[in-house]
Amino acid sequence: MVALTERKPDPSDVGDEEWALVAPYLRLLDEGVPQRSYPLREVFNALRWLVRAGASWRMLPHDLPPWPVVYQQTQRWLATRVFDALVQDLRHVLRLAEGRDPEPTAAIRDSRTLHATPERGGQAGDDGAKRRKGSKVHLTVDTLGQFLALQVTPANEQERAQVAALAAAVQEATGEAVELAYVDASYTGERPAEAAAAQGIALEVVTLDAVKRGFVLLPRRWVVERRFGWLARFRRLARDDERLAQSLAGLHLVAFAILMAARLARLLAQGTLTGSRGSGRLRNCGCPCRREARPPLHGRPSPRGNSPRAWRRCAAHGWRRSRS
Question: Which regions of 10-67 does DSSP assign to beta strands (E)?
Answer without folding.
Answer: none
